[in-house]
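Hey, I was hoping to borrow your eyes for a little while. No rush at all, and the record is pasted right below.
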Amino acid sequence: MRKSKPKKRYLPADPKFQDPLVTKFVNYLMERGKKSLAYKIFYNAIDIVEKKSGENGLEVWKRAMNNVMPSVEVKSRRVGGATFQVPVEIRPERRINLSIKWLIDYARQRNEKTMMDKLAGEIIAAAKGEGAAIKKKDDTHRMAEANKAFSHFRF
């Protein structure tokens, strides 16, 4: 076991919106260390969202992130030789991480031509409460609801 928890690292704010959450999102979006390209993709996707929805792109993105954030998930727990799926509350930090991951993963699976279009499409869909990332959240909640009987096995 560790003697102490590692110190929390804080991210710098992004250059355009001055928001550390944007930096975190871009870090997840980045591939092969190409951060400037990831920033370009994100900013262009936000511009596309603004054009399509007619609202502030950053506000739509934040609404999409809040809509995708799950509140409960299931974790496997072995009790007496059997494995149970135990529903657990999710820490706020992990909620953010999961919503970022799901938005980006399901944006990559979309059928639009460029990543900017894919990301913009997924952000708009999530802000409206539809799309694959929202479906993933609903599936997670449904799984936790179905296994509510095992909640007394909590960690």
Q: What stands out?
A: DSSP finds six helices and two strands in the chain.
